[in-house]
Amino acid sequence: MLAKFSAYFITASNFVLTDAAESIVNVVASSFAFFSIYLSSRPRDENHPYGHGKIEFFSVFIEGGLISIAGIGILFKSTYGIFHPEPIHDLLTGAIIIGVTGAINGALGYYMIARGKALNSITLDADGRHLLTDMVTSGGLVLGLSLIYYTDLLWLDSILSIAVGLYITFSGYKLLRRSVAGLMDEADFSVVGEVIKVLNNERKEEWIDIHNLRAQKYGHELHIDCHMTLPNYFDLNRVHEEVALVDKLINEKAGIKTELFIHTDPCLPQCCHYCSMPNCPIRSEVKSTHIEWTMENITRNKKHFEQ
User: What is the DSSP letter of 255?
Assistant: First the structure.
């Protein structure tokens, strides 16, 4: 941040100011991200039975909001600069400073995204993508400053800063959209799709159907509710074994730590036509169809024969 503001004071360029203003957001947002990661890692307690992971969505919301505000401010400042231009100078010196800071932010951004994916942390991922945005704008800034220097078209300073301001504002909007989706428990289809893939690959004959599956993310953890239909002659010990196996498989193979609440249903005669259970003592008809578990039928609050 200090390096970028130094570049602005050296050049007096609105274009450089766009990058310097965003660096303030980097510092403030990263400070809150640091706190949110600390809080989200704390164990669940009586007041927060699902843990503290939701704080990460607030962190992303604040970061997205700050980025959007910075982008809008840049647009106003740059538009004003078109009608009231100011002299700019030492553009190559400013370009070198911005280029170095952009390279550092880019390397850090790629590292944070990788760690965010490994730890299932939306905050690390969002902060890393913000730094990548900074790298892109810094790269564009270096090219723009070089272009202004060699063409001597000073009006490009404000025009290019408007373009960067629009890009920054859009990046902030995407983070806001992502945070609101998490706070509203919007379904993460990529995560649910991976869970369904594991269930299909590891499917057992005893698992007649799974339905009413709902998934919520709490920071780096996933919470799943679902209904599972099992043969109605299983005793409680056998039911517990099947439920525990589903829990184990998802936690080992879905790529995210998951807490499952599974409600078990007894099978009905209407289930027989798609049930694969061999040597079933209560079967009323032979199996005549195979129902693949999909996003559509596994998330409905209905047994498969009611589809």
Answer: S
- Nearest-angstrom CA–CA distance, 98 and 90: 13
CB 78, CB 161: distance < 8 Å? yes
Q: What is the mean pLDDT of residues 9-16?
A: 82
The tokens of 26 are what?
A: 């980097």
Exposed e or buried b per residue across 205-222, where buried means at least 16 C-beta atoms within 10 angstroms of its C-beta: ebbbbbbbbebbbbbbbb
* pLDDT tens, residue by residue, 180-218: 877 776 666 777 888 889 999 999 999 999 999 988 876
Which H or E run contains 215? Answer: strand 209-218
Q: Cα–Cα distance between 216 and 169 in angstroms, integer?
A: 28
Amino acid at residue number 224? I
CA dihedral defined by 262, 266, 268, 270, rounded to 10 degrees? 20
Overall pTM surpassing 0.90 (yes/no): no
- CA gap 92, 141 in Å, rounded: 11
116, 124 Cβ separation under 8 angstroms: yes
Residue among 27, 34, 33 at smallest CA distance from 60: 33
Of 56, 265, 18, 278, give the one whose Cα is nearest residue 136: 18
The sign one gets for the Cα dihedral 13, 14, 16, 20 is positive
Ramachandran bin of 295, using left for φ above 0, alpha for ψ from -120 to 50, beta for the remaining angles: alpha
As a whole number of angstroms, the distance between CA 114 and CA 45 comes to 30
